[in-house]
Amino acid sequence: MNFFQILILNTMQGSCDTDWDVDKYRSDHEPRHHWELRRRFLVQNKGRFPEDRLVCLAQTFANIEFMGCRYPKDTMDLVELLAFGIVQVAYFLIRDTF
Predict the structure, then answer these.
(1) What pTM does this model have?
(2) What are phi and psi of 41, to 5 degrees?
(3) CA 41/CA 22 separation, integer angstroms
(4) Which pairs with CB-CB distance under 8 Å and at least 24 residues apart come from 17-21?
(5) Domain chopping of the chain, boundaries
(6) Comparing 13-22, 32-41, 66-75, which segment has the lowest mean pLDDT?
């Protein structure tokens, strides 16, 4: 992550409501490891966007990571920025279990 991206993330802090339950968005049929990554994305970015927008971005993140979906460049860049550190941590957690 470069300095400009860190600056953008820092300016997005705390501008939206955070009084909502992240766990209500888990699907009954969602694999645990998918939910854990999507949940981390939601928790890490809670307050940066309105709830409905963040939930959509979290699903977009999951689609990119698990389904290989591609989106317009601006969307891909935003999701990459918001997901910083999430996939890297999960990789090390999964790697250490084998």
Answers:
(1) 0.77
(2) -60, -45
(3) 10
(4) 17/47, 17/50, 17/51, 18/46, 18/47, 20/46, 20/51
(5) 30-98
(6) 13-22
